[in-house]
Specification:
4-stranded antiparallel beta sheet; globular; single chain
Length: 76
């Protein structure tokens, strides 16, 4: 499946589309894109992802689902 949204970073690796977001890993970031406009994405440094996905509320649930979607933390 190709990405649903335009993403202009050639270094990013596309993993697929889930819950309205294209999921990417890129060098030191984990990226969830939800639109074509430049700022329509959420991202975290990969080093923060383990801490964020253990918290409740906010974006943590979405990032936790995305980590599961790509097959686990080791695939960041």
């Amino acid at each position: 499946m190709p990405p649903k949204f335009t993403h202009d970073c050639e270094a990013c690796k596309f993993h697929g589309h889930m819950q309205g977001h294209d999921v990417y890993t890129c060098q030191s970031s984990f990226v969830l894109r939800y639109g074509n406009d430049g700022p329509e994405y959420q991202s975290l440094p990969k080093t923060m992802v383990p801490d964020i996905i253990t918290r409740e509320g906010g974006a943590s649930g979405l990032f936790a689902a995305a980590v599961e979607f790509i097959g686990g933390i080791e695939n960041l």
